[in-house]
Amino acid sequence: MMRERHSDDIIDVDANEEKHFDIDMSDAEAVKTAVAVKYTKDDFLYTEKPYEAIYDYKNDPFMHNLKIEQMAQQAAEVGVKTFKGLYKNYVKMREMQRGANVIINNPTAFSGPYMQLDAGKYNVDDGGVYLIDESGNYHVICHHPIIPFECLQNIDTGEEKLNIAYRTRGEWQEKVVSKEILYNSRNISQLVKCGVDVSSETAKELVSYFQEIESLNRNSLPLKRSVGRLGYINGAGFSPYVEGLTFDGEQNYSTIFSAIKSHGSYEKWKKVAIDCRKKSVIAKIFLAASFASALIQPLGGLPFFVHLWGVDSGTGKTVALMLAASVWGTPEMGEYIQTFNSTVVGHERTAAFLNSLPFLIDELQLSKDSHGRSRFDVYQLAQGVGRSRGTKTGGIERTPTWRNTILTTGESPIVGGSAGAGAVNRVIDIECTANNIVIADGMAVSAVIKQNYGFAGREFVAKLSSQKALTMTQEVYNDYFTKLCKSDTTEKQAMAAAMILTADMIAEASVFKTNEPLTIDDISPYLQTKKSVSAGERGYQYMCDWVASNSKRFATGEDNNGEVFGLIQGDFAYIIRSKFDEAASKQGFDTRALLSWLKSNGKILVRGRNNTRGKRIGGVNVECVVLRLPDETPDYYTEEEMRGTDISDFGIL
Fold first, then answer.
1. Looking at 82, 97, 112, which one is the last position of a domain?
2. How far apart are CA 563 and CA 557, in angstroms?
3. Which domain holds residue 48?
4. Is the peptide bond before 634 cis (omega within 30 degrees of 0)?
5. Which residue spans traverse the membrane (predicted)?
6. 614 and 522, same domain (yes or no)
7. For residue 385, what is the DSSP state?
């Protein structure tokens, strides 16, 4: 082992002075002995004798390097000028025989738990990283030791990163750093935020140092598989439950990654969870939805929401979210559980990081603007695919994807009345009231699950590890899905409900074992009907309400203050087209789509291909949307009925 070197060991010398080396007499005699034998040219070219003579001293780096120089000089005197290259190949051969493939010519010499590396032209010891040039000048690269100690290769992307170790203030720190940072003088300065001694002046030298030390030790640095996210990893298993995987993701997500772990007593957690399931069907559904997140990818499903909302305080919505989180890890706020106080990009990247684990978001009201309108869009997460974005250097970033459940809470529904059918379709919306509490004793439940968590999710995933188990799970899901599709709900709602029911059955068999699984009757009251999902149906109901609330403006006379929206005659409201567009758009409905639905479903009278008809209002002929108002007649006119309508009956010109 090379002795430690510090700045005090280096002294300036004049050109006429000899450099002083601190060598004792035994070392000096060893050098003389190493070169005492005179070898011939044939010895260098046809035998291993000169190479073996110095190879045995390789564990003493200082003496080893001196002998190499001495032997190279002797080889040159007999006409062999390639001794160093020959010796290097000899070392490789010997080391490969011993199960190694490199030799450390200039080892790092710092105290610490990390492996010894070849520092090349640099000196690395407890005093830092420095160079000594041919004139004996001392150049500091870094004032503390810093080395790479393992190379990480991401399973998803193939990108390589280095795990570096550095000692500041007497303590060793570790950090995974992309090579885009380490090998770029502009980027490497970012490490100063982590306590690394680097400046704009030393950045280039530190980059050169990392390049050389990795190149020299490429065969020595352990190469490990790494992952930057959670969930299913092709050919590896389920992160973070895969042995030997190292996290190499963004530092912002290391908190969430670290939160997915087991702690405390599994039995205490199960006791509380079982009690919550028995007392509340909503808690049972919400807990099952957390497990269901791990089924979406293997069963080929799509992400969906389960949203708990209610204006009453103390219904246990947040505690239910904590219980769902405790299936996988710590339920502390800000660790695994996130809030709606985030950007669109933040939500997308967090969903992609969680990947197969449930995305838990609390307090919908944090996403609302000053007018009380929510800025959150269900479509952003329900599609399971993020936005494509360009990179600074050209091209596009890797598009983020995810396949999980999104469990949310708030004081209001997560989708408004004007939301598209696709958004409504992807949400199981559950209202919590004072008479329908989710978690009765929130304080007691939260106290237990904060100390006991993270066991059930791991066991649940383990149950799905075999192909036989997946096949059986698929059969159970298909059975639930088929039965649900026969009810008055949509396929997407049936898919989400079937996932929840299947997950609860597996959790019941492997975790809770109470023989009380969720049933279709339990979850059906919370599923949207085909009619309620339809944006056209909701738009029609809104416009009928709008006509009723503005009835005075559908009559000629002084009561309407001079502003007229149209006329009401019999079962039809003649709405001036501009007023119809204004009212529908203000509520968030697309007027063209709404009119198309109204026409297809016999809710308006039309003229040819137009969606309007002419009507004289206040003596002026204007285009109107002729909206059929609800009554006791059948919901829809048939095509024959529409064709048989006499225009003159309604005073249409």
1. 97
2. 10
3. 7-97
4. no
5. none
6. no
7. B
SS3 152: strand
* Beta-strand pair 223-227/231-233: unpaired
3-state secondary structure of 118: strand
Note the pLDDT tens digit of each residue in 95-152. 555 444 445 678 888 888 888 899 989 999 999 999 887 777 888 999 999 999 999 9
Residue 180 lies in a domain: yes
- Same domain for 519 and 547, yes or no, is no
Buried b (16+ CB within 10 A) or exposed e, 574-592: bbbbebbbebbeebebebe
Tokens standing for residue 191? 């490490």
Using one digit for the tens of pLDDT, what is the confidence trace for 422-437? 678 889 999 998 888 8
CA distances from 332 to 135, 255, 513 (A): 59, 11, 27
Structural domains of the chain, count:
4
> pLDDT band at residue 357, thresholds of 50, 70 and 90?
very high
Give the Cα separation of 303 and 68 in Å (integer).
65
- Give the pair of three-digit tokens for residue 497: 């409900």
Rounded CA separation 145/112 (Å):
10
Round to the nearest angstrom and report the end-to-end CA distance of the chain.
105
CATH number for the domain spanning 461: value is: 3.40.50
User: Cα angle vertex 249, ends 247, 255, to 5°?
Assistant: 80
In a domain, 108, yes or no: no
Reading the block at residue 69, the tokens are 């120089």
Give yes or no: residues 538 and 465 share one domain.
no
Residues 499 and 615 in one domain: no
Radius of gyration of the chain (CA): 37
Let me know: does 121 contact 212? Beta carbons within 8 Å. yes
Strand spans (E) along 179-278: 223-227, 231-233, 237-239, 246-247
DSSP 454: S
Residue 370 pLDDT class (50, 70, 90 cuts): low
> Can you tell me which residue has the tokens 């383990």?
462
DSSP label at 83?
A: H
| Cβ burial 351-368 (10 Å sphere, 16+ → b, else e) | bbbbbbbbbbbbbbeebb
Q: Does residue 521 sit in the same domain as residue 397?
A: yes
Domain boundary among 479, 509, 531: 531
Cβ-proximal residues to 299 (8 Å cutoff; 6+ apart), any chain: 473, 474, 477, 499, 502
pLDDT at 231 over 90: yes
Alpha helices (H) in 365-466, listed in sequence order: 379-382, 421-425, 442-449, 456-463
For strands 405-410 and 359-362, give the pairing.
parallel
